[in-house]
Amino acid sequence: xxxxxxxxxxxxxxxxxxxxxxxxxxxxxxxxxxQQLSKRVEKLxxxxxxxxxxxxKNLHASVEGKEILKGVxxxxxxxxxHVLMGxxxxxxxxxxxxxxxNPKYTVTEGxxxxxxxxxxxxxxxxxxxxxxxxxxxxxxxxxxxxxxxFLRAAVxxxxxxxGEEPIAxxxxxxMLKEKRKLVGLDAHFMSRGxxxxxxxxERKRNEIFQMAVLEPKFSILDETDSxxxxxxxxxxxxxxxxxxxxxxxxxxxTHYQRMLDYLKPDFVHVLVNGQIVKEGDASLGxxxxxxxxxxxxxxxx
Length: 301
Fold this sequence. Notes:
Layout: E1 2-4, E2 11-13, H1 25-48, E3 52-63, E4 66-77, E5 81-85, H2 92-100, E6 105-114, E7 117-118, H3 124-130, E8 132-135, E9 142-146, H4 147-161, H5 169-183, E10 193-194, H6 200-214, E11 218-222, H7 230-243, E12 249-253, H8 257-263, E13 267-272, E14 275-280, H9 282-291, H10 294-300
Helix pairs in contact: 3-4, 5-6, 6-7
């Protein structure tokens, strides 16, 4: 055998070889094990390059002893917006509450990995600090706690979690002013109790305002569009879109085409009877708006 090394690479030319003995079983096992190892390395490298922010596998969850989620599988990558649709009672809100750690819901099987961490091992407050935010379907009032104090406490709790000093009062007020402009909230709302005396549209805008202040990595919008008129929905959606970055992702629960028009999601998933049964792009959402869910249920029979 002659080895040529004139360039950066090497190549081999066979001039003349003697008759070789057949390889023994041990040699074949070595070759096989190397091939298996190579495949495992390739698979690992592929998994590392998926940039998955959230990975839900075979998730089962129940509330008050009744199973609602029956094997949900969902992967959300960095910078992606996923819309979740489905009939009432299919498990959409349950999935949201499980992700944020609502103790009312019990996970009985499956796993949730968020940015490489086991989400099910984290407390609700730690999940929030790690970057998970949920905009509630029906935000509640917290009388006696001003918006300013509420948000400053939340911001400083997150800073403490990461070993940072509390934010200076001047810097915080400047940030609030900048974020308020995104969702059209007037300054007088900051001195009022959280959602106290707010209209439905103001409460939903306040949810997006909180999202802007806390700067989460992953946001869950649970029917934020419900009860909003056209103008209020536009303001909320535009505020949300302004907060989108290649490093932030979202799961949006909605029943309406107009939300798809504003958000232009990357993926649409259909949840039926506790399982994701169909996936596609925004066109799937438009088909559901036109035909409902019955045609999907028929496909499952």
